[in-house]
Every structure is written in C-alpha cells, then in structure tokens.
Amino acid sequence: MIKVVVTDMDGTLLNEKHEVSEASLEAIQKLYKKDIRFIISTGRHYKGTMSTLEKHNLKCDYIVASGAEVRDQESKVLKQVPMDHSSFEDILDRIKDFPVTARFCSDQYDYAIGSEEEVKESLILEARHFFYDGSQEDIESLPEFKQRLDHVKCISSVEDLRKDNISIYKIFIFSQDESIILEIDKSLSDIEGIASASSFASNLELTHINAQKGIALKEYIEILGYNMDEVMVLGDSMNDYSMLSMDFGATVAMENSMEQIKKVCKYMTKSNEEEGFAYAVEKMLNDELEELRIR
User: Fold this and answer.
1) Is the pLDDT of residue 128 over 90?
2) What residue range is the signal peptide (predicted)?
3) Global pTM?
C-alpha cells in the first residue's frame, strides 16, 4: 500500500509553463485526504522551489538541490551535504576551454563568475534554450526570467565563495551542444567525491557524491518510519535516476522521460503536458496502477 508520494518538479509535476496545474493540485489534495505523505524532490534549491510552489500552500517535505538538502513539512533544514570547495578549481580548469556556462548553487542563490552583463547574457541563452524562443527584450520582460536573474550573484572567482564561507550544493553547467555536455561529463568522471546527473540533455549537475535524490529519499523515509515498498516516486530525467532506479514500491516515468529513465521504471504515465502526475496519482488511488506497468 502506497503511503508516500514523491515527485520531481520540472518535467514531472510542473507543466511546460513551469506551473502546477489545477488537476495536479486536486490530485495532491486527494493525497492529503488519504493521509498519504507528499514529498517534493527537485534539482532546484529551496528558494527557487518556493518561488514556484509557495503560492499553493502545499503541505510537503522537500528534498532540494538534487539531494543536497532535506527539509521537513515546516521547512526546517534536517540535513545538508555541500560540495568540497577544494574540487572547484580543478572542475573549472577542465571545462574552461568548452563553450559552456557554469553556476555555483547554494541554498539561497546561484553564483556565476563574470560581470552582470555576462551573467545576464548567459541566462538569456539558457532561457531561449529551455523555455522561450523570443527576442532579448521579450525574454528580459518575463517574470520568470527576472526571478532567475534576481537569484544569481556575480563573483570574480571561486575564491570569493571560499572567503565568504558559502556552502555550495551543486554546480550547474550548461551548453547548447549536447555532445559537449557528454564530453565534459566524461572528463570530470575521475574527480573523487562528486556525482553527476542531468535534468536535460543540455546540462550537467555536479553534487557531492552523497548528495543524490535516491540516497536522500531512502534515508528520509526510513527516518519517518516508512518502508521502501510504501513509496511511489515520479520523475523524468537523469537527476531522478538515483531514486527511480531503486526498488521503491512504484517507480513511475513520465511519457516525456529520457529513455534511460523509462528503462528502469516499473510504470509509465502520461507526459507532464497531459497531466501525467495527476493521472498516475488517480490510478494509484483507484488501485489501477497496474494498468501503467511497463516492466
């Protein structure tokens, strides 16, 4: 019997407008009525998570920054697993000749090396790639872009992070060329103590080796007193792989998932644009989840 539902945000709970639909909100309310615990597990840091979810007043626990931080239903920080600053120079040295942008993500802000104008240009490039293919003026007027820009602070070097004792949970690397992301991932693979994953084929997310969604989720549900077979997990990308590849009771891939995700999940629901989250929850609540089984 499922007693906990865990979902990724982007590409899973959120639609293509990066919003929680009415159908999904209704599905979450049904979980509450059945006393089923609801957990958000996302690559976003807490501040970025709440910028999207706060208005909905959800009662949930949070696994954020790809597993680097865990918060309870009152948003109290229970665990943090920051990266080791000593690896930053090595990482930057290995990616410096590639046409990529990199941000260092803390629990509150992202930090980028460069001037304000350079950082803005890199965010515009990402915005065109991920969610809006318009003019620079149009992009800069978008509330979501302004929000992202406000979350980024400029630094001159990684020494600024060390000097100000800023804990970094994740390094986010972006390139429009997906083959470059693969090449960078390979070039960083021998650095001890880090894990790599992706929310999209065009990005790479580096965390501490122990800061992974699957590790954080398993540890947290056991602290809460649940068994793995009582947990349903939904996701779509490689930064969900560590939890979807584990033997939780129901692992559910979105139809828009990367192929590697579909291969390890037990079930598959509709895409995030077709209310896949709400559809899977309804199937589970009606004891019809087996209709979605793929392996």
Assistant:
1) no
2) none
3) 0.91
